[in-house]
Amino acid sequence: MYTIMTQYSNTFYSYIMNNSSNNILRFRYIFADKIQFLPDKIVSSKALLKHLDISPNSEEFIIFKNTFMEYFIDTFSKIQSV
User: Among 7, 59, 55, which Cα is nearest to 30's?
Assistant: First the structure.
């Protein structure tokens, strides 16, 4: 399973830079000045929240949550299809 996971896993940074959706476009707009500093490795959503300095119950949090869930579902569906 580890080989499959690493073979089909995308980093969050790679996902938002190489894909386009309403969520991603909003994310890029809101976090334009912080995207370049995101790690290009697989990290938890909690680490990304801390890195982006997003507080819970904010509009930024909702945009992040929607974009991260889209990323997670996309990544999980690729793993499932193997």
Answer: 59
- The answer to whether position 2 is within a domain reads no
d(CA 12, CA 45): 9
Domain that holds residue 26: 8-80
Tell me how many domains the chain contains: 1
Convert the pLDDT of each residue in 22-45 to its tens digit.
999 999 999 999 999 999 898 899
Model confidence pTM above 0.85 = no
First to last CA, the chain: 10
- Tell whether 1 is covered by a domain: no
The amino acid present at 12, given as its one-letter code, is: F
